[in-house]
TrEMBL record:
The keyword Oxidoreductase applies. Residues 37-343, 441-519 form the Pyrrolo-quinoline quinone repeat domain. It comes from Bradyrhizobium valentinum. SUPFAM superfamilies: Quinoprotein alcohol dehydrogenase-like. This is Quinonprotein alcohol dehydrogenase. Belongs to the bacterial PQQ dehydrogenase family.
């Protein structure tokens, strides 16, 4: 880094400290640190709610572009949720390229890109990343070749790195999401569900990069994994967890068991796949777990965000898995309070018992035959997070209402066949529209505890971006064709839209600097969705690739 960049970074930090004004007062859970977006889901309760209200229902139609920045390599699009802290944006794009940008102008302050193992060009989950973490004056990333890296927050200079996964020998298991800052520890969750490996969660000292512990999501138990079935049991925790400082617990949702669609050699419960695990971040010790999908054969990971609530004197977790079922749990022991589905388009089971969590009337997959399963392997919702607004009491989620034909076939176990998924099939299913002819997607507003729906917005192409809701009474959502929309959070009325030029598979955020509120949108269609969805949605065949950050604000 040049001396000029160092001086610029230092002066920017001082300017932001002096000039950043709070646009909205902070009151109540989810409203702390209102000007910033300091972690993946903004706050430790994972609500994706910004209390900022300068942009509101009355003026959102006046939004205009403040700045645009390009992220570089467009391979697999842009899937990140950027962070905004004290006037600086921290962004990560393909190839683990990290950049710090001036939040007022989009001008780059510094960038860093690690030299990646050449094997990353062959493995399944590469080269995309979903975000960074920031803490203790450092920017932390998990790399697509299985490393943890810490950078100086002001300069981008590398401070430490540590190899965590056995990248070459575990089917290319790596990190596609940021670590969680849990006090003075970091926790990294690895990919694994479609890999011939055992997925793990790692605990690392934030200051030094020393690995302290690892938690295997494949339980060493012959009742859970008969014979050698657990050797390549999959699992992992490929989305960021939630750290609860009150109980000093990090909660992770885990991935599916392998092979995805074949269970003949794993006739146990396959712990700890498709589960929430509550871990001590200091030691990695398991405090409790709740398995949501026992002996999964439909690729219904539980790797999604873990939301925290206080309601009626209870500490609760709200958590959706890929099946579309939402589990409302006691935060302290994982006991069930309620279970409800985001859609009635489901046939993999008749239902899930709301007291015990047992699957009722499950549908098995006969070998070498197609079976129609709803929802598809994309899930009742994709991995992109929903958003909860404490003012409306509503949780906003993209719902996927289409199905797929699954056909299990015999497959060898080969952890060195890096480009082939360890799934027990030749593909992830032949996608089809719902049998009843309904629209394939919608944005829902629901009570997170009961599932009662207040409003819905139907879509011809379902949404695959994370949702943002704000103190201005708004909900922002993007779709794969590139249309960004602002909705009235109370009614679902569309108040504004903008064509970003490429589809959205990322996280929309809001922040404030120098007394002005911004909406920041990563636009760049990609991921396996871009490869697998066009046969069902021809509208997506010609969506241009991109890796772009677009910031909006109100004109002065």
């Amino acid at each position: 880094m040049t001396m000029g960049k160092l001086i610029f970074a230092a002066s920017l930090a001082l300017t932001c400290l002096l000039s950043t004004a709070t646009v909205a007062p902070a009151e109540g859970p989810g409203t702390e640190d209102p000007n910033n977006w300091p972690q993946y889901n903004r706050t430790s309760n994972a609500w994706r709610y910004s209390p900022l209200d300068q942009i509101n229902k009355d003026n959102v139609n006046k939004l205009s572009v403040a700045w645009i920045a390009q992220g570089g390599d467009i391979t697999m699009g842009i899937q990140e949720t950027p962070l905004a802290i004290d006037g600086v944006i921290y962004s990560i794009t393909s190839g683990n390229r990290v950049a710090a940008l001036d939040a007022k102008t989009g001008q780059e302050i510094w960038n860093y890109q690690p030299k990646l193992d050449p094997l990353t060009k062959k493995v399944l989950f590469s080269p995309y990343s979903r975000g960074v973490a920031v803490g203790d004056g450092k920017v932390f990333i998990g790399t697509v070749d299985g490393r943890g890296i810490a950078l100086d927050q002001k300069t981008g200079k590398e401070i430490w790195q540590v190899q965590l996964t056995d990248f070459a020998n575990c089917h290319g298991c790596n990190f596609t999401s940021p670590p969680v800052v849990a006090g003075d520890m970091l926790t990294f969750g690895s990919t694994a569900g479609e890999l011939a490996t055992q997925g793990k969660i790692f605990g690392v000292e934030a200051k030094s990069g020393k690995k302290v512990w690892e938690f295997n999501t494949i339980k060493d138990d012959p009742k859970s994994w008969p014979g050698t079935s657990g050797k390549y049991g999959g699992g992992g925790a490929w989305m960021p967890g939630t750290y609860d400082a009150e109980t000093n617990t990090v909660f992770y949702g885990t991935g599916n068991p392998g092979k995805d669609f074949i269970n003949e050699d794993r006739q146990g419960d396959n712990l700890y796949t498709d589960s929430i695990v509550a871990l001590d971040p200091k030691t990695g010790n398991l405090k409790w777990y709740r398995q949501e999908i026992k002996q999964d054969v439909w690729d219904y990971d539980s790797a999604y965000e873990v939301l925290l609530f206080k309601k009626d004197g209870k500490d609760l977790i709200v958590h959706m898995n890929k099946s579309g079922y939402v589990f409302v749990l006691d935060k302290n022991d994982g006991s069930i309070e309620n279970i409800w589905p985001v859609s009635d388009l489901k046939n993999f089971v008749k239902d899930i018992d709301k007291r015990t969590g047992e699957l009722i009337g499950r549908v098995e997959l006969p070998m070498n035959q197609e079976t129609l399963i709803c929802p598809s392997t994309f899930g009742g919702r994709s991995w992109n997070s929903g958003a909860y607004n404490p003012n409306t009491g509503l949780w906003y989620n993209n719902v996927l209402d289409f199905c797929g034909y699954l056909k299990p076939v015999a497959q060898k176990d080969d952890p060195k066949d890096y480009g082939t998924g360890h799934i027990g099939a030749s593909d992830f299913g032949r996608l089809v529209m719902a049998p009843d002819g309904r629209k394939p997607g919608r944005l829902d507003a629901r009570d997170p505890f009961t599932g009662e729906r207040k409003w819905t917005h139907e879509m011809d192409v379902p949404g695959f971006a994370s949702v943002l809701t704000t103190g201005g009474g708004l909900v922002f959502n993007g779709d794969p064709t590139g249309i960004l929309r602002a909705f009235d959070a109370d009614t679902g009325k569309v108040l504004w839209s903008f064509n970003t030029g490429s589809g959205m598979r990322s996280g929309i955020i809001s922040y404030a600097v120098a007394g002005e509120q911004y909406i920041l949108v990563p636009s760049g269609w990609g991921s396996y969705a871009a490869i697998l969805l066009p046969p069902l949605f021809p509208q997506l065949e010609k969506v241009p690739a991109a890796s772009t950050l677009i910031a909006f604000k109100l004109p002065k």
